[in-house]
Every structure is written in structure tokens, then in C-alpha cells.
Amino acid sequence: DHITREKLERILAVIQGTNQKALLMYSNIDMKTQEAYELAVKGLIRPMGKSPPIITAVRCFQFAPPEFQLEIHCLHETQQYLRKLVHEIGLELKSSAVCTQVRRIRDGVFTVDDALPRTQWNMQSIQEAIQNCQLKVQTELEKALG
């Protein structure tokens, strides 16, 4: 009964704020420049090199005690990191929390819509999936290379 959505939201805000500071630190961008402002507005600030996992956004989209679901946007994460994060949230709430499921809905430019179900893991379906994603990959490469 001592766990409320408001308490959870406060903890998530602290986590997100701390990670935003880390993101700025690892991005090696002078935050006093116009370029930095424009990148920040577009949400395009990214670490320049190797960095630890960084959360760019986190929100609770379902709260039904004793269960809750989080949507987490992050860079360089692992399932182990996400489980640890949920455990730490539980400790901050003076309780315990266990991660029971992780569902990746995006990885780079690829989304769930690009995923190929196991029932379609055959040569023809794989070739079609690669062809369908070629334009998306090419566009992303052109953006990255300027």
C-alpha cells in the first residue's frame, strides 16, 4: 500500500535526469553552441564512443499493484542492466521488484514490424526481409555519413 504511482514517477524522473546528464557528458558536445541546442531539440544527442548503458527516456505506462510496466528508451543496454534497474527501483520504493519480461520493440532503425517470426525462418522469407530493409538501412547510412 505504501507504493504509489506518484512515488514511482518521482523515482523514474530522477533516473531519467541522472542519465540525461551522463548522456551530455559522453556526447562530447559543447552545450553552449547552437549545434548542441539543435541536436537536443531533435533528440539526436548520442555518445561519441563507448559508454555505459544510458537511459534516454523512461515512463510507467501501466500501474496495477503489485505489477507495473515500464517503457524504457536506452542506449547500450543489456537485459542484465534492465533487470538491475528494476531491482534498484524496488529498493528505492522500499520494497522489491523483479523484472519478469523484456520486450525489445526497436533496435537502431529496426522495429518490431521489421522482425521475422520464427515460423518464417526460411531462405525465401529471410531474403525478402533483407530486401525490404535495404532502403531503410541505406537511408540511415547516408544520414550517418553525411
TrEMBL record:
UniProt-listed SUPFAM superfamilies: Pseudouridine synthase
An annotated GO BP: RNA processing
Domain Pseudouridine synthase II N-terminal: 2-78
Superkingdom to which the source organism belongs: Eukaryota
Membrane-spanning residues: none
One Pfam family of this chain: TruB_N
MF terms (GO), sorted A to Z: pseudouridine synthase activity; RNA binding
PANTHER family xrefs: PSEUDOURIDINE SYNTHASE-RELATED (PTHR13195), PSEUDOURIDYLATE SYNTHASE TRUB2, MITOCHONDRIAL (PTHR13195:SF0)
Entry's family note: Belongs to the pseudouridine synthase TruB family.
This protein's name: TRUB2 synthase
Provenance organism: Certhia familiaris
